[in-house]
Design goal:
The complex is a heterodimer of chains A (325) and B (290). Chain A is built from 14 helices and eight strands. Chain A is an alpha/beta fold and 325 residues long. Chain A folds into two domains: 42 residues; 250 residues, 2-enoyl-CoA Hydratase, Chain A, domain 1 (Alpha-Beta Complex), CATH 3.90.226. In chain A, strands 1, 2, 3, 4, 5, 6, 7 and 8 form an eight-stranded mixed beta sheet that branches. In chain A, strand 2 and strand 3 form a beta hairpin. The longest helix of chain A is centred in the N-terminal third of the chain and has 20 residues. Chain B has two domains: 33 residues, no CATH class; 221 residues, 2-enoyl-CoA Hydratase, Chain A, domain 1. In chain B, the strands form two sheets. In chain B, strands 3, 4, 5, 6, 7, 8, 9 and 10 form an eight-stranded mixed beta sheet that branches. In chain B, strands 1-2 form a two-stranded antiparallel sheet. Chain B is of the alpha/beta class. Helix content of chain B is 36%, strand content 17%. Chain B is globular. Classes of the chains: A alpha/beta (325), B alpha/beta (290). At the A-B interface, strand 1, strand 2 and helix 6 of A face helix 11 of B. Chain B: Pfam families: Carboxyl_trans, Zn_ribbon_ACC. Chain B: Acetyl-CoA carboxylase is a heterohexamer composed of biotin carboxyl carrier protein (AccB), biotin carboxylase (AccC) and two subunits each of ACCase subunit alpha (AccA) and ACCase subunit beta (AccD). Chain B: Belongs to the AccD/PCCB family. Chain B: Pathway: Lipid metabolism; malonyl-CoA biosynthesis; malonyl-CoA from acetyl-CoA: step 1/1.
């Protein structure tokens, strides 16, 4: 059975009815083609209607769809010669992050991304895409290597967040994330980041300081998961839906807030419906981004990145000096 | 008692005779130390000295390694003329070195030179564990440092295959300093943007693992290779801690973040070619910027 999303229920029912009728026509001598055509037209209209009016919570559901394509799905489709590099050279190899070298339309690049599992077994191995410090340190090692050899860096962001656990704290989760933000700000090569699923907090940002940050239409990016926000704000995690609506976590909202550069459209119904097609949408944007960044010199890249983040934030420069002194 | 009649217990134990242990004729047949299978040496060599039945990677000599990795006829050896002295007047040292020189037809425990891998030019250094257990003395350090300097002059990647018990005790602190010499050479090369690939083979321990073997932009190892700083027995005896069975194997190191990949000997040439290709490629016309 395919995994159904709540808002897709009317569609699923209609599709079922159509296929029943088709089956019926095949086996009996009754012609239902008129009815089928009518229903298909209705389905088309309903699909357009539903997918054009997705609520933020609906998008959270799509972003978390178990079949949503992962970093490795896109690497396979967008790059050639991919060679995965393991380990942070210090403590371990965190499989919640994958990274390596590859060619992108012939251009040598370094590609890094969070990696969820496709099934329970793989999810356990990859810790559900929630990295430990060694994952971030591996990513940084590969970024520094890319810098040494003058290769652009492409990051795919897809995590619920950095793993909250004892071992992660002992090994310095905060330091590892902070170090990545610090070092990424100074990279002398182009960095393009693409949020492909969930962009959960610092754990996402640790791969997300780039010259360009793009987001798939149905992905989310936020300071905390809707459940976490609901628990903190209203002491009730079940209000996640409400949190999702208020927190501005969709690509469209984040584009308006200036947090991301571009929203990459998705295949109707979500990226999982046609991964090959989705990869093409990403390809278009990625190619354009790299073309724009490649002519820039190291200082220009660093300055562009700084300007980009310096601009983010909202405040008033008032006349009044508020002081307790 | 009736029970005794059915006892399966043997009354005596059999001790395999020395003769039985060595009943495999040397040279013609080889016994795999891991799965104990006996196979024709010729067959084993043809399979790059990887056990046909269990995949165990038998040690490879430096000339064999170069022959199977570099494009035929491209290898040009460096520094065959450097020979060990006996700086500490260590008894019997020179005799032992001469013995190994005779046995291996090598001047020292590392062979250096240049050649191409599927057309990609490289400078390569390959250690040979048959020569004083691949230990690093002044000559090994000097040959490696000179090879790195050549790679620097030519601006080509440097690949090192390590196989070593560590520093050469008979040359004392001079051996220790070869770690610093080779690492310093790699630092200069790296600053210049040079590509360093280290492939650790069985065994890579002590001063070699704690210097150039670990300094690659890419650190690879062959399956099952023993890699570590302090030996297992030393650790067990000093800290009295039981160590896991796979301790200090290539797979253990991969799990603990020290290696980029463990690569079977059969795949090695392809992997190296891919890495060299990615590093040499500039992206072609599509990416040309003015």
């Amino acid at each position: 059975m395919a995994y159904e999303l709540e808002f897709e229920k009317p569609l699923v029912e209609l599709r079922k009815k159509i296929s029943e009728l088709k089956e019926f026509t095949k086996h009996r001598d009754v012609d239902f083609s008129d009815e089928i055509n009518k229903l298909e037209a209705r389905l088309e209209k309903l699909e357009n209607d539903i997918y054009a009016h997705l609520s933020p919570w609906d998008r959270v559901q799509i972003a978390r769809h178990p079949n949503r394509p992962t970093t490795l799905d896109y690497i396979e489709r967008l790059f050639t010669n991919f060679f995965e590099c393991h380990g942070d050279r210090c403590f371990g190899d965190d499989e919640a992050i994958v990274g390596g070298i590859a060619k992108y339309h012939g251009l040598p690049v370094t590609v890094i991304g969070h990696q969820r599992g496709k099934d329970t077994k793989e999810n356990i191995r990859r810790n559900f895409g929630m990295p430990h410090p060694e994952g971030y340190r591996k990513a940084l090692r590969l970024m520094k290597q890319a810098e040494k050899f003058g290769r652009p860096i492409i990051c795919f962001i897809d995590t619920k967040g950095a793993y909250p656990g004892k071992a992660a704290e002992e090994r310095g989760q905060s330091e590892a994330i902070a170090r990545n933000l610090f070092e990424m700000a100074g990279l002398t090569v182009p960095v393009v980041c693409i949020v492909i699923g969930e962009g959960g907090s610092g754990g996402a940002l640790a791969l997300g300081v780039g010259n360009y940050v793009h987001m798939l239409e149905n992905s989310t990016y936020s300071v905390i998961s809707p459940e976490g926000a609901a628990a903190i704000l209203w002491k009730d995690a079940s209000l996640a839906k409400k949190a999702a609506e208020t927190m501005k976590i969709t690509a469209k909202d984040l584009k308006q807030l200036g947090v991301i550069d571009e929203m990459i459209p998705e295949v109707r119904g979500g990226a999982h419906r046609n991964v090959d097609e989705q990869a093409k949408y990403i390809d278009d944007v990625l190619k354009r981004s790299l073309r724009e960044l490649l002519p820039l010199r190291a200082e220009q890249l660093i300055a562009q990145r700084y300007e980009k983040y310096k601009k983010i934030g909202d405040f008033i420069e008032s006349e009044q000096h508020v002081s307790v002194m | 008692m009736l029970k005794d009649l059915f006892s399966k217990k043997k009354k005596y134990a059999t001790i395999p005779s020395e003769q039985a242990k060595q009943d495999v004729p040397e040279g013609i047949m080889t016994k795999c130390p891991k799965c104990k299978k006996i196979m024709y040496t010729k067959e084993l060599v043809k399979n790059l000295r990887v056990c046909i039945s269990c995949g165990y990677h038998h040690p490879m000599s430096a000339p064999e390694r170069i022959a199977c990795l570099l494009d035929e006829g491209t290898f040009q050896e460096y520094d065959r003329h450097l020979l060990s002295k006996n700086p500490l007047d260590f008894p019997q040292y020179i005799e032992k070195v001469e013995e190994d020189r005779e046995k291996t037809k090598l001047n020292e425990a590392v062979v250096t030179g240049e050649g191409t891998i599927n057309g990609f030019p490289v400078v390569i250094a390959v250690m040979d564990s048959r020569f004083r257990m691949g230990s690093m003395g002044s000559v090994v350090g000097e040959k490696i440092a000179r090879a790195i300097e050549r790679a620097m002059e030519k601006s080509v990647p440097f690949i090192i295959f390590t196989a070593s018990g560590g520093a050469r005790m008979q040359e004392g602190v001079l051996s220790l300093m070869q770690m610093a010499k080779t690492s310093a050479a790699l630092k200069l090369f790296s600053e210049q943007g040079g590509l360093i690939i280290s492939v650790m083979t069985h065994p890579t321990t002590g001063g070699v693992s704690a210097s150039f073997a670990s300094l690659g932009d890419y650190n690879f190892a062959e399956p099952g290779a023993l890699i570590g700083f302090a030996g297992r027995r030393v650790i067990e005896q000093t800290v009295r801690e039981e160590l896991p069975e796979d301790f200090q194997t290539a797979e253990f190191l991969l799990k603990h973040g020290q290696l980029d990949a463990v690569i079977s000997r059969h795949d090695l040439k392809d992997v190296l070619t891919n890495v060299l290709d990615i590093h040499q490629s500039r992206g072609g016309d599509e990416w040309r910027t003015n």
